Amino acid sequence: MEESERASSDVLERFLRYVQVDTQSSDEHADQVPSSAIQFDLARLLAEELRGLGAEQIAVSENAYVTARIPASAGAEGRPALGLIAHLDTTEVVSGFGVKPHIVHYEGGDLVSGVVDGAPVAIGPDKLPALNSLVGQDLVCSDGSTLLGADDKAGVAEIMALVARLSAHPELPHPALGICFCPDEEIGHGAALLDIEGFGCTYAYTVDGGPIGELEWECFNAAEATVTFNGYSIHPGDAKDRMINASNLFVMFHDMLPAHMRPEHTEGYEGFIHLLGVSSTCEHATARYIVRDHDRNLFEQKLALMQRAVDFINAELDEERVSIDIKQEYRNMAEIVSAYPELIETAQEAFAAAGVEPRVLPIRGGTDGAQLSFRGLPCPNLSTGGYAFHGVNEFIPVSSLEKMVDVLEALVKRFAQGNAGDPPLTDPRHERRRVSATT
């Protein structure tokens, strides 16, 4: 089948169905995997659908990882197995319960997802200029009371629609494929418990990006910092030279972090220090921050700056009342993926073959691919087609859902056939040239 004559896709029907299955992760239960038992509902549904599509080695682990194997097409049995990965959960930041998707034909101006408490839930080109390029398209939105869940149920639906297409058209070239749907990506756990050896793939791609055409192999270095402030409470009438207000200690600390490092003032390769939240009384305060930067040195400098602020306040008080606990989360996968330029080049070719202009961008976030790359499975990230993730204005064009299935078909074809002049996609250990950061 020629790339210009691809089969139809059921991706929209799948996507609409999957987003109505509640899978919101929970930071309150981050020590257990999955953090929310409801993620098993979608995991088991996907496993059953994979069985119906003829997949092999289907399993749902005790931690809600869905894995399956798609046998290679005739003639591609000797090619390296390729993994396709997406995540089951939706963010805990905005409600993902009771999603009611619907399609809006966008004609310009504000995109109104729905009406909540009598007020329209809308976003316009002033906040999202990309809307100007989407006039005349059908966009899938929630009803405005929840997020949509395109992050990452769009990726799940696109992978599943590819599996359905390959099942209906086994003549389409593809290597053996490993399919994986992971829990808890949104709270930083992601693919940590995936059995990579059992997964059996040499390379993989996550399908977890934004607007159609985005291709990412660089992500943030990431840490979470919890800062604790211990005050001394006494009746304010007797407080002179005695009270130490923990809330004021927090304000002092936060004001020592440069405003230009806040995420609302950064873009591109610029890192940030972001205050997630604070709980505070006179006696005790706790502030949670996330720290991000693509550059490892700048990342370490931000962490050192926070430690110096803690040390300064304690020195001013002449006692230890402020402490910081730093939890490393993930590293920039460019350290690994840059050694595999053919993964980026092949993905660019797949986008172009499907009529999509590829755009190589740094991820201003993280993906399961960061963990997987450092665990020995090089794993760039592909777009899903969605916009405005993690909020009630989230949406995805129907055309992007459909086009990404074509991109995945073109991608697996190239892994099945190989390209003249490319290094052989067989052994990640052989010598490779590195991808330039300006790709």
How does this structure look, described?
About 30% of the residues lie in helices and about 25% in strands. It has helices at about 10-20, 40-50, 150-170, 195-200, 245-255, 295-315, 335, 340-355, 370-375, 400-415; strands at about 55-60, 65-70, 80-85, 100-105, 110-115, 120-125, 140, 175-180, 205-210, 215-220, 220-230, 270-280, 285-295, 320-330, 360, 380-385, 395. The strands form 4 sheets. Strands 1-2-8-3-9-16-10-15 form an 8-stranded mixed beta sheet. It has a 4-stranded antiparallel beta sheet with strand order 12-13-11-14. A hairpin with a 2-residue loop joins strand 5 (about 110-115) and strand 6.
If helices are DSSP runs of H or I spanning 4 or more residues, what is the number of helices? 10
DSSP strand tally: 17
Beta-strand level of the residues, as a percent range? 15-25%
Radius of gyration, CA atoms, in whole angstroms: 23 Å
Helical amount: 25-40%
Largest β-sheet summary: 8 strands, mixed
Assembly category = single chain
| Order of helix and strand elements from N to C terminus | HHEEEEEEEHEHEEEHEEHEHHEHEEH
- Derived from helix and strand composition plus strand pairing, the structural class reads alpha+beta
* Apparent shape: globular
Strand order of the largest sheet: 1-2-8-3-9-16-10-15
Unreliable segments of 5+ consecutive residues: 420-434
**Span from first to last CA?**
31 Å
Mean pLDDT across residues = 92
